From TrEMBL:
Pfam families per the UniProt record, alphabetical: Cyt_bd_oxida_I
Biological processes, Gene Ontology terms: aerobic electron transport chain
GO molecular function, a single term: oxidoreductase activity, acting on diphenols and related substances as donors, oxygen as acceptor
Class of enzymatic activity (EC top level): oxidoreductase
Enzyme Commission no: 1.10.3.-
Transmembrane regions listed in the UniProt entry: 27-49, 61-82, 102-125, 132-152, 191-215, 227-244, 327-351, 363-384, 408-436
Record-linked InterPro entries: Cyt-d_ubiquinol_oxidase_su_1
Name of the protein described by the UniProt record: Cytochrome bd quinol oxidase subunit 1 apoprotein
Domain of life, per lineage: Bacteria
């Protein structure tokens, strides 16, 4: 794998592998918690509006799952910031003036907001008023969105850098307008696309859990309600995601054409209309797509809205500036394929709902159960497409990945990578097992929440354990 690389080149590959590994683990938890926080807000709002205990039961059921997923997301994200100082110190030195404040804003706004209201949301149901508790739930949901806002702004600036000035030592400095940095050309598309992906990820997890319990007990009202809500989300939002993804792709073609060339498998330019390659085996060495299955001129029709429009290929890009096609080509197809499967399941559920068989078709439930992890796989595939397609740049067109890595030794990076692999699989493997165990439990009336029991030794409002014992006596 590392044949032909010098020691610094090996360190670069290992540093990239380490960051890819840690961010992949981290990404799946925020993708779940962003959507789940909003789902919890909807459930509590429905409970307050209708007074139906079923919504409160579902709120408490998913609140326990949210608390574990949120904690795992925070823990998995901590080590990523350290890598900016260890493995990517040159990158941090050069771009810190731009992305440092944006990441600080994420902490000062989103993290503080979530931290301030999370305790009330988790443990305050029986200690504060209903409206105040709902306000806390809303603030946590808003906080997850604000966190996504700032992180995606940072990532989008690296993809489409604007609003900066170059310093005397080659560092990136903020220009006169921070709005140009924050709202860079790809940011609106990436934000909407990613947040919708988070909502769909949550919807398919909720739908899978509902389907699992429907397969065991078709009369379970709690399973029926969560399955119905999830399928509404899939049916209504999946088509929107397809449209948003198309707009995001057109924006990428404008600002990062080499990435789109890799996604489409266009090694060669097509002056009279480019085909849409459905499948094939990319060969970067020979710069061709083997065993290609293509629809003639369909790529030009999608990207240019003209079947005869010319499309440039990677033959117009310098060899050392081309992204690795094999990875981008297949990760993109995994993401798109899963997206259309989500759309198909949503339409199937609409048909079942129209036939009044939504809760009576085991095949639909089995398909929903099978699609439960699809959102996680899709968001990881989308992230791989975005980040690997940006190579060989960290700041697109301006700073290469090789120029960004720290002057570190390969054995040191390999040791830390191995430690991360062992610890992550142990810790987050147990955490994931516990999440699945919680989901395996049947939701039922009078669902207990994560609130402290009355005999808990820690009390708010100044009541001590001794006072509690005296009152009991």
């Amino acid at each position: 794998m590392f044949a032909g690389l010098d020691p610094q080149g090996t360190a670069l590959v290992l540093a990239r592998m380490q960051f890819a590994f840690t961010v992949s683990f981290h990404f799946i938890f925020p993708a779940f918690s962003i959507g789940l926080a909003s789902y919890l807000a909807v459930l509590e709002a429905l409970w307050l509006k209708t007074g139906k205990a079923l919504y409160l039961d579902l709120f408490r059921y998913w609140l326990k799952i949210f608390s574990v997923a949120f904690a795992m997301g925070v823990v998995s994200g901590l080590v990523m910031s350290y890598q900016f100082g260890t493995n990517w110190s040159v990158f941090s030195e050069k771009v810190g003036g731009v992305i440092g404040p944006l990441m600080a804003y994420e902490v000062l706004t989103a993290f503080f907001l979530e931290a301030g209201f999370l305790g009330v949301m988790l443990f305050g149901m029986n200690r504060v008023g209903k409206r105040l508790h709902f306000a806390a739930t809303l603030m946590v949901a808003v906080g997850t969105f604000i966190s996504a806002f700032w992180i995606l702004s940072v990532n989008s600036w690296m993809q489409t850098p604007t609003g900066f000035e170059m310093g005397p030592n080659g560092e990136f400095l903020p220009g006169p307008s921070w709005a140009a940095i924050v709202f860079n050309p790809s940011f609106p598309y990436r934000l909407v696309h990613t947040v919708i992906a988070a909502y769909l990820t949550t919807a398919f997890v909720v739908g899978a859990v509902g389907a699992w319990h429907l397969l065991r007990d078709r009369a379970n009202l709690h399973a029926r309600k969560m399955f119905s809500m999830a399928m509404w989300m899939a049916a209504l939002v999946a088509p929107v995601q397809v449209l948003v993804g198309d707009m995001h792709g057109l924006n990428t073609l404008e600002h990062q054409p080499a990435k789109v060339m890799a996604m489409e498998g266009h090694y060669q330019s097509h002056p009279d209309g480019a085909p849409l390659y459905l499948f094939g085996i990319p060969d970067d060495a020979a710069q061709k797509l083997d065993y290609a299955i293509a629809i003639p001129k369909a790529s030009s029709l999608i990207l240019k809205h003209d079947p005869n429009a010319p499309l440039a290929g990677l033959d117009t890009i310098a060899p050392d500036r081309r992204p690795p096609v094999w990875i981008v080509f297949w990760s993109f197809r995994i993401m798109v394929g899963l997206g259309f499967l989500m759309l198909g399941l949503g339409l199937w559920s609409l048909f079942a709902r129209f036939r009044k068989r939504l809760y009576d078709w085991p095949m639909l439930h089995r398909m929903a159960l099978l699609m439960g992890p699809s959102g996680f796989v899709a968001v990881i595939a989308g992230w791989v497409t975005t980040e690997v397609g940006r190579q060989p740049w960290t700041v697109y067109g301006l700073l290469t990945t090789a120029e960004s890595v720290s002057p570190i030794a390969a054995p040191a990076v390999a040791t830390s990578l191995l430690a991360f692999v062992v610890v992550y699989f142990a810790v987050f493997g147990v955490g994931t097992w516990y999440l699945l165990r919680l989901m395996h439990e049947v939701p039922h009336p009078h669902e207990p929440g994560p609130e402290l029991e009355e005999r808990a030794p820690i009390r708010s409002a100044g009541i001590t354990p001794a006072q509690q014992q005296e009152g009991a006596a």
